[in-house]
Amino acid sequence: MSQLPLIHARGLVKRFGDFTAVDGIDVSVAPGESFGFLGPNGAGKSSTMRMISCVSLPTAGELRILGMDPAREGTRIRARLGVCPQLDNLDFDLSVRENLTTYARYFGIGRRQARARAEELLEFVQLADRAGGKVEPLSGGMKRRLTIARAMVNDPDIILLDEPTTGLDPQARHLLWERLFQLKRRGTTLVLTTHYMDEAEQLCDRLVVMDGGRIVAEGSPRSLIQTYSTPEVVELRFGDERPADVAGKLAGAGERIDPLPDRLLVYAADGDAAVAEVHRRGLTPSSVLVRRSTLEDVFLHLTGRTLVD
Amino acid sequence: MAQLTAQVSARSTLAVLERGLTLYRRLWAASALSTFLLPVLFLISIGMGVGGYVGEVGGVDYLSWIVPGVLASTAFQMAVGECTYFVLGDFKWSRAYHAMAATPVQPGDMVCGWLAYVVIRVEIAVVVFLAVTSLFGALRSPWAVLTPLVCALVALASAAPTMAFAASIDHDSYFALLFRFVMIPASLFSGVFFPVEQLPALVRPLAYLSPLWHGVELDRAATLGAAPPWPVAAHLACLLAFAAAGTLWAFRAFRKRLQD
Amino acid sequence: MMTTMIAARLAPQGAAPGRVGAVIGRNLGALRSGPSYWLVLLSGFFEPLLYLLSIGVGVGALVGELTVAGRALSYAAYVAPAMLAVSAMTGALAETTFNFFHKMKYQKVFDAMLATPVRPLELALGELGWAMIRGSLYTAVFLLIMVGLGLAEPLWALAAFPATVLVGVAFGACGMAVSTLMRGWQDFDLITTGQFALFLFSGTFSPVGDYPAAVQVLVQVTPLYHAIELVRGLCIGDAHLGLLGHAAYLCAMAAAGLWFAARRLQRRLCV
Fold this sequence. Notes:
Chain A has 309 residues and is an alpha/beta fold. Chain A folds into 2 domains: 212 residues, Rossmann fold, CATH 3.40.50; 63 residues, YebC, transcriptional regulation domain (Alpha-Beta Plaits, 2-Layer Sandwich), CATH 3.30.70. In chain A, strand 8 and strand 9 form a beta hairpin. Chain B has a two-stranded antiparallel ribbon. In chain B, strand 1 and strand 2 form a beta hairpin. Chain B starts with a helix and ends with a helix. The relative contact order of chain B is 0.15. Chain C is mainly alpha-helical and 271 residues long. Chain C has one domain. Chain C is built from 11 helices and 2 strands; from the N terminus they run αααββαααααααα. In chain C, strand 1 and strand 2 form a beta hairpin. The interface between A and B is medium-sized, with 29 and 27 residues.
């Protein structure tokens, strides 16, 4: 890495009373990178995001954003960040355009420039035709796009997105991903949290997997899958038998066997070969699916739990 | 003081004020009736209707006597009203303050920006009311031109602690308590309708604790051209103390609520 | 009793008391689950008493006595029954406008209720019943205070109580009807302003007879005037046939409000 990291955290801790939300994590994000925090609800992703966005101070550890200390220079740091929070906090009493221009003024942007910027951003998030309208009737996906446009109003060095597509329907998610991908291509530094592995695979150059306030793995989606999983996974379902009972008969059929409540996973370099082995052992699964390995498998391997339950 | 000024920037405060004004531009027509019409109706009903049976108070007709009271009371009630549901709502429902907290805007800017907005709203109402009452011939002294300044102080002295209160609670039913135990008693017993000397000696100090009473007496002194019961400086000091303490409390309450 | 009869006329199937009760029960539960329940409830008694002390006693000391129906009354005795009627009105309106609208539009409580066997009319009756229970508690206590302060004879106060309930029903029913027409919070400024204007000019603080003839006629068309005349007549023990006319006005208002509210709810929520 030739440039200084935009975000640098060492032993970062956040406690709320007795509860430790973030338990000593190390993170470094380079300029132009698209970085993700992947983990289930309650893993400490949002608390980490709030510390990075300088609205919540760390309990312990070292944190530098854009080379500055959030405790002393929070205002200067926030001036160069764009934040898209988990819950949309748009101003329902203002129009779509006014939401952007008003927000721009918080950054000290001049009125005329704020207006020009708003038009440009509404164009980018495909809401130009709603500019004069109210926020309330917008769909969930439109509101989220407006929030993202608002986060870009100060032309930030880093855009922070906390679970950007949670609660959106598949079509809205894909539209949003496409816009974020555009940003990524322009070289904007993105930091996002998600509990969707497909989102992490789509958007992140590099990510950390969090569980219980700690980082349990770090790397690119590809390298994480290579390290913690096999190239292919076979999903087997059995009519009446419990997966755990069948698991014993499959020892050695793949590199690893994982019985879940409803299905059995066989990790293997060659999925078809593993299926052949299953049949050779006289087992007759009611359904067989051979697929590529995903981050979900990585997470399952690391924590023994699924991401979305 | 240095620490305090570090929490406020003129630029950010202006941005917060602008948001308030943008909202007001949308709402003013809807609130115009209650802002401009109600105080006047009030004067007609109480000042003229009841005034017909009262005769003179403090050497002037009842209408002229209550005009300054109603003026200060309008500033007081409006200031409190603008700082309850709006402030709690911007924390709890719209989360507008959380949105601001992610920008260079600091809690101090949020407080000062909204206070500035409240003062502007109050001034608009006060000036219109003054213009109307001058038509009734209720302004007896040129000092009356100072009443908008007094009303601005009353607004700050009552808005700031109300904001702090609104930022400290998590359920809007506490406002019912604020209205019934603080705002309504203050409006009714702060010398707006009858002189506080009529109150039992035990209760009277409570009226002195109300910023409204100081505002009423200063406004009354100005419109009637007579000296207030306490030295002007003492009344002003009380109002300023309320405003300063309330603002500090609001800074703290906002900072606390936006943390974590 | 009367409202149930009207209700039976309006809905061919009538209203099931059990379901009306369930609607009331929901409100009671919601109030009790809010913070400082007793304080909020108690503070409701406090408000009209403060007005009575400030205007009735405080301003009363400046006014002296008034002559009503040929007899001299202390200003407090003149204002107190009006405060009582106003308190019955504002209590009923607060519950059926602000709270009703909030529940209808934002909390979607009614959508949830109407997805059950509860019918719009039962909902309207339940909401009104709730407003009455809360309001009657307040007026009963206020009447006790008036008796305590010697502003009303105990028997006349007893006679005034059902009148305050009628005032509440009439304003509550109309409040609900108006709520179903509201577009947003901004419209409430109109309600508040209208309510306050009624409060100021319905003979609350000074006799309507003092107004110019044209204004008098205007006031006599509006509802709070009739509410105050009825309650004041009973409180000061001035019973005459005219009181029946005021009561009839309020009954008609209650029936019309209820009918309209149930019809609008049907249209707005059951589509």
